[in-house]
């Protein structure tokens, strides 16, 4: 949240504890819910945002409703970016959730909102107002910038905007819960976004390892329970198709605070239950940008490619060949800074793929000797603040060649490794297109080349990277030579304690 809130933390802490125990009606006796237009859709979505909620603390809190949603829905955890892409702060986090794109598109990198690009990448409520204006929509927030900056509330038919920084979040969270409950019970909304902020205040005041933080989670879990009960109490509930999504904008350190690159600050999650969303699923390829895409999916809206969304619906799995490697992931060997319980790397290639290390030097850090298949948590833990946190468009497991980390242990000779794809049929086709996502950092004499081999012949260079590419989709279309029946691609990386090259989302198509 905003840095300005730090000045109110101490003055609201004592009041927060007492107010948390007060009935919802106490905080809402003077407030009447607005009248929304009558809804038009049987497909309905409630998005609940809980600020600064560390998902790995939920199990230790009294949170039966979140726990029930995990059992009855799909629960995907992931990590945020860090600077220089954006701080692990609320401005970038909620912008990512609302717009469905990463900070390099929506432009919000910290809580001043300087550089925001909501005109091109609006929030999902604003987008719904453009493409489905007949929907009845509502938003409630008590961190005012989410309204004042245009992050969440534009497009809503009605909104409740309170000032938690000025007045304290405990009472205002209760007001939001009560008003949303009343709207769900007594009116016919189609899409709602509601925000609760006290978890973040508790994190700042007491740290994510504190009883106060767990209590704040319990209170907000109670609010979630009231909203779920209100949905089920609707007279028309049996004929409606409700999706409920819970998410957060960033994590917290154990001692309290966020904005930096620690794993605890980068923790986020998307939890959803509803039609077509699997019960009990724990996907490894979910990202924070998936909230908006899930909203559209559940409403039957197919996003226009021109929207440039980075997200995908939470129920859709990546078809990347590297995702099959989860059973092969193992714990650290030489990487002392990664907890032993984190299973996140393997040298086992997917079926049909191979890694050629015949020109590779000896020694070095075992995990990074040649192309490695790794998860975001394992790889980015290997060394903070060297832009590994910017690998945002990779999902689940990706391939990485990292000469920098390999050289952290005594080695001899160059880093020289080649990742080889299977042979893809191209007979009778005029062109073949290689699609992938890349994070590449250039330094010194290192090289990163893509080569094509037709019919198993001598590989020919078709692309060379000579400058940074910060987690972007790539597309390379080649003419199919006469007589070519198949093609395989090679990703050849060399370095000498330089940086790294990440490959993910490999897809080959023909036309």
Automatic annotation (TrEMBL):
A Pfam cross-reference name: Phosphodiest
Residues annotated as signal peptide: 1-32
Keywords in alphabetical order: Signal
KW Signal (keyword) present: yes
Keyword Lipid metabolism: no
GO molecular function, one term: hydrolase activity
InterPro entries to which the protein is assigned, alphabetical: Alkaline_phosphatase_core_sf, Phosphodiest/P_Trfase, TAT_signal
Protein name in the entry: Nucleotide pyrophosphatase
Organism: Streptomyces parvus
């Amino acid at each position: 949240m905003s840095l300005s809130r730090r000045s109110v933390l101490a003055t609201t802490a004592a009041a927060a504890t007492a107010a948390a125990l007060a009935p919802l009606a106490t905080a809402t006796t003077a407030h009447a819910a607005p009248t929304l237009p009558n809804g038009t859709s049987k497909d309905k979505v409630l998005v609940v945002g809980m600020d600064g909620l560390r998902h790995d603390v939920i199990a230790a809190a009294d949170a039966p409703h979140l726990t029930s949603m995990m059992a009855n829905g799909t629960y995907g955890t992931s990590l945020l970016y860090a600077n220089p892409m954006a701080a692990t702060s609320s401005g970038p986090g909620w912008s990512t959730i609302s717009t469905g794109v990463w900070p390099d598109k929506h432009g919000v990198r910290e809580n001043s909102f300087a550089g925001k690009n909501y005109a091109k990448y609006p929030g999902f409520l604003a987008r719904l107002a453009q493409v489905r204006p007949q929907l009845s929509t509502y938003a409630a927030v008590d961190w005012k910038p989410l309204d004042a900056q245009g992050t969440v509330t534009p497009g809503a038919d009605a909104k409740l905007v309170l000032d938690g920084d000025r007045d304290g979040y405990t009472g205002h969270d209760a007001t939001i819960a009560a008003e949303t409950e009343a709207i769900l019970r007594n009116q016919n909304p189609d899409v709602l976004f509601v925000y609760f902020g006290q978890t973040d205040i508790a994190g700042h005041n007491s740290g994510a390892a504190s009883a106060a933080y767990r209590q704040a989670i319990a209170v907000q879990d109670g609010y979630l329970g009231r909203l779920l009960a209100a949905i089920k109490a609707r007279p028309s509930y049996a004929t409606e198709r409700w999706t409920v999504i819970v998410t957060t904008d960033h994590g917290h350190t154990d001692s309290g605070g966020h904005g930096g690159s620690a794993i605890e600050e980068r923790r986020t999650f998307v939890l959803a239950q509803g039609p077509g969303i699997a019960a009990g699923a724990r996907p490894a390829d979910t990202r924070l940008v998936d909230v908006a895409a899930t909203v559209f999916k559940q409403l039957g809206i197919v996003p226009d490619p021109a929207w440039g969304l980075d997200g995908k619906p939470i129920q859709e799995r990546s078809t990347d060949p590297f995702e099959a490697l989860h059973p092969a992931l193992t714990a650290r060997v030489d990487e002392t800074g990664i907890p032993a319980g984190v299973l996140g790397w393997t040298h086992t290639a997917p079926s049909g793929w191979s890694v050629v290390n015949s020109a590779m030097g000896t020694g070095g850090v075992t995990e990074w000797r040649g192309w490695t298949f790794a998860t975001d948590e394992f790889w980015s833990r290997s060394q903070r603040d060297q832009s590994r946190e910017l690998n945002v468009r990779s999902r689940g497991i990706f391939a990485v060649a990292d000469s920098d980390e390999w050289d952290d242990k005594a080695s001899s000779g160059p880093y020289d490794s080649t990742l080889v794809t299977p042979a893809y049929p191209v007979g009778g086709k005029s062109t073949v297109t290689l699609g992938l996502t890349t994070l590449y950092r250039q330094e010194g004499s290192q090289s990163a080349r893509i080569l094509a081999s037709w019919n198993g012949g001598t590989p020919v260079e078709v692309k060379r990277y000579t400058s940074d590419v910060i987690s972007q989709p790539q597309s390379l279309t080649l003419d199919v030579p006469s007589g070519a029946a198949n093609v395989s691609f090679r990703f050849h990386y060399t370095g000498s304690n330089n940086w790294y090259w990440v490959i993910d989302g490999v897809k080959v198509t023909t036309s």
